[in-house]
TrEMBL record, chain A:
It is found in: Cell inner membrane; Cell membrane. It comes from Kitasatospora saccharophila. The keyword Transport applies. It is a multi-pass membrane protein. Its main location: membrane. Residues 70-291 form the ABC transmembrane type-2 domain. This is Transport permease protein. The keyword Membrane applies. Coiled coil: none annotated. Pfam families: ABC2_membrane.
UniProtKB/TrEMBL annotation, chain B:
Belongs to the ABC transporter superfamily. It holds the Pfam family ABC_tran. Residues 10-255 form the ABC transporter domain. This is ABC transporter domain-containing protein. Keywords: ATP-binding, Nucleotide-binding, Transport. It comes from the Bacteria. The keyword Acyltransferase does not apply. PANTHER family: TEICHOIC ACIDS EXPORT ATP-BINDING PROTEIN TAGH.
Length: 299, 399
């Protein structure tokens, strides 16, 4: 010990802010943060997150079936059970006319689409709320969470389509030759579903009430959408407005025409549905991105 | 666009953040109320600034300790650096991959196994599966998980979850590592290894921002200190200066709460060196501590005397029996060779009835004030587990 001593240690510690420059009362208005969306940047970010979407979807799938004995069978059992009920009620009791096509096939096709929509909507709406602990710690483009739930629903839908293939065998009818129409219809279905999931997911974070709304939408939607009956049951003059509000009506009708009846989908209805779903998608995305910035503040 | 900063740079310019201070109930009638007020032109909103005008520029490879009392805005700032939270105003620019450990269980999903969690977290950081696989063994090894890696995380102990979280954040080679007050959960050995790992990562050129109330830990990791107070940067300087300033302010606050209504009071204290005229103290030389106590109490009592570094790390304490006669009482303690290196220390005193430290409080244990010691600086030691009052000091008492 010993050595250098008598050094002043009571010198000023660090530099406090110079007394002449007090902190202003508020930020200069030109610096206030505004959400700017550059489509290219958004797309690049989303593409960079593809691995994440896959991982999240995988996580949901694994977590969902981890303690379920029947596992993936549930993806098929739910639409099959509904299909059985529909066949009993609508076919036997209400006597919905489906022409040469077996009613079970007719209803099952609608149910696949509906299940996809309602799965994405219900899971997607809660996707942000359920991942809040993650959201508050790690950054990633937030739209991946509803997107991942849609991917999970897509897996379920693919399984459902596999069963549809089996049904074609059972009923001994082949899918019609016009099946390529399925591609644009799928686009409409995905765009609309994702748009709804985006809006609902961010709405749930801000307004818990939306949570309670979900079962009601699901319950009513399955009957308000032409799942059990053909679109023709809706009055002719209302059909265009109806498809504008609920593009799924045109989508389901289109699938049936293309796959079961061998006709091209109604061009007018399909276009209205396409335009409407695009509005839902873009509008939903903008709302999502706008409200996204406050998620960490309210949650 | 601004100029291109290298990976690992953190830059904030005039960053402001505010939160709602009013009750934010979501009931419909509140909404209606609020809307009615808004129609009358009264916004009816009450905001509180959490951060005001934060300007920081952190170069790649710098290690910065963020210190400050609770509610000073440290965690808010860290959340904005991770881009989880958005500022109200200003520019935040963090270049490169960010590894953040904001709370325990960061990015950990309870229903998945440890293995699945590691891959998920890697995906969140923007890593490819292959890249995560290359570091997988290191992570498992560091977190000491062994066979538990294929068990669901909900069956992990909180220590295991924390270890996994830290290992993932620290081994996936981020350009910027943000760590917020999380090490407290781990045991002493693991804390030590975390700090070692952070130093290692810092040496590899990763930028580190470390938030902690464990000031010695901050000091052992960081070269630069940013002291936040009430949402503004109070001091941005070398870590030693920033910590000293912060400690001083804590001490000033704790001294302000004076003790009243106790049977005995400390009227005066003096810490002086060999020469009664010279009040400076030197390492390894004699020191006299002189106290004057006053109060109504008559009888025997035990006087306790202690010295700590800052307010938190005790260095030694000694005690002596005194007899109070109702008037003022002067007592002095001579320490022949002061074993303290250069620095600023806090003197603590307390008086208790004989044989009791609980219940028979005559003057409760409190910090009397500070004194400076001049002498050689210690070499910065490897951080070790802190024991209570680890130094024995030869001394003798005089009445």
């Amino acid at each position: 010990m010993g050595g250098q001593r008598a050094q002043v240690i009571d010198e000023p510690r660090g530099q406090a802010a110079p007394p002449g420059a007090p902190v202003p009362a508020g930020p200069p208005p030109e610096l206030v943060f505004k959400r700017r969306l550059r489509p290219l940047q958004v797309a690049r970010e989303l593409w960079a997150a593809r691995e994440l979407v896959r991982a999240l979807a995988e996580r949901d799938l694994r977590a969902r079936y981890k303690q379920a004995v029947l596992g993936f069978a549930w993806a098929v059992l739910t639409p099959l059970a509904l299909c059985a009920i529909f066949t009993l009620v609508f076919h036997r009791a209400v006597k919905i006319e489906t022409g040469a096509v077996p009613y079970t096939l007719f209803a099952y096709l609608g149910l696949i689409v509906w299940q996809f929509f309602s799965n994405t909507m219900n899971q997607g709406a809660l996707s942000l709320a359920n991942n809040l602990s993650l959201l508050n710690k790690v950054y990633c483009p937030r739209e991946v969470f509803p997107l991942a739930t849609m991917l999970v629903a897509t897996v379920d839908m693919v399984i459902g389509v596999g069963v549809l293939g089996l049904m074609f065998l059972v009923f001994w009818t082949a899918p019609a030759a016009t099946f390529l129409w399925v591609v644009p219809l799928l686009g409409i279905q995905f765009a609309f579903t994702y748009g709804i999931a985006l809006i609902l997911s961010v709405a749930v974070v801000y307004l818990r009430d939306v949570r309670h709304l979900l079962p009601i939408i699901t319950q009513m939607g399955v009957f308000a959408t032409p799942v059990a009956y053909p679109l023709a049951k809706i009055p002719q003059r209302l059909q265009e407005v109806y498809v504008g509000v609920n593009p799924l009506g045109a989508v389901i009708e289109g699938y049936r025409k293309a796959l079961l009846y061998g006709e091209a989908p109604d061009a007018r209805m399909t276009l209205i549905a396409a335009a409407s779903s695009l509005v839902f998608l873009v509008g939903g995305y903008l709302v999502f991105k706008k409200l996204e910035t406050g998620i960490a503040d309210v949650a | 666009m601004s100029r291109d900063y290298p990976l690992g740079t953190i830059r904030t310019e005039q960053v402001w953040k505010r939160f709602r201070a009013d009750q934010q109930r979501m009931l419909l009638r509140d909404r209606v109320d609020q809307m009615a007020r808004r129609l009358r032109g009264d916004r009816g909103e009450d905001w509180r600034w959490a951060l005001r005008d934060i300007n920081l520029h952190i170069e790649p490879g710098e290690s910065v300790g963020l210190i400050g009392s609770n509610g000073s805005g440290k965690s808010t700032l860290l959340k904005m650096l991770t881009r989880v939270m958005y500022p109200y105003a200003g520019v935040i620019d963090v270049r490169g991959r960010i590894g953040a450990l904001i709370e325990i269980r960061a990015g950990i999903h309870p229903d998945l196994t440890g293995r699945e969690n590691i891959y998920l977290f890697g995906a969140l950081l923007g890593l490819k599966r292959r890249e995560v696989a290359g570091r997988f063994d290191d992570i498992v090894e560091f977190a000491r998980l062994g066979g538990a890696i294929d068990r669901q995380v909900k069956f992990y102990s909180s220590g295991m979850q924390m270890r996994l979280g830290f290992a993932v954040a620290a081994y996936l080679e981020p350009h910027v590592l943000l760590v917020d007050e999380v090490l407290a959960v781990g045991d002493a050995v693991f804390q030590q290894r975390c700090l070692d790992r952070m130093r290692e990562v810092a040496e590899q050129g990763t930028t580190i921002v470390f938030v902690s109330h464990d000031l010695p830990a901050v000091q052992s990791i960081c070269r630069r200190g940013v002291w936040l107070e009430q949402g503004t940067v109070r001091v941005d300087a070398g870590i030693t200066d920033a910590l000293a300033g912060y400690r001083d302010s804590i001490e000033a606050q704790s001294e302000a709460s004076a003790r009243v209504g106790e049977p005995l009071q400390l009227l005066k204290y003096e810490v002086r060196g060999e020469d009664a005229e010279d009040t400076t103290l030197h390492t390894d030389e004699p020191v006299t501590v002189e106290l004057t106590l006053g109060g109504d109490y008559r009888g025997d009592a035990t006087l306790h005397l202690g010295v700590s570094e800052g307010t938190s790390s005790p260095i030694f304490q000694i005690s002596h029996e005194i007899r109070m006669t109702g008037g003022d009482h002067r007592v002095a303690c001579v320490i022949p060779r002061l074993p303290l290196p250069r620095g600023r220390y806090t003197l603590w005193t307390g008086v208790y009835s004989i044989g009791k430290t609980d219940g028979g409080t005559l003057m409760s244990w409190h910090s009397a004030g500070q004194f400076d010691v001049f002498g050689p600086m210690l070499d910065t030691p490897p951080r070790a587990v802190v024991m209570a009052a680890p130094v024995f000091v030869p001394h003798q008492w005089e009445d």
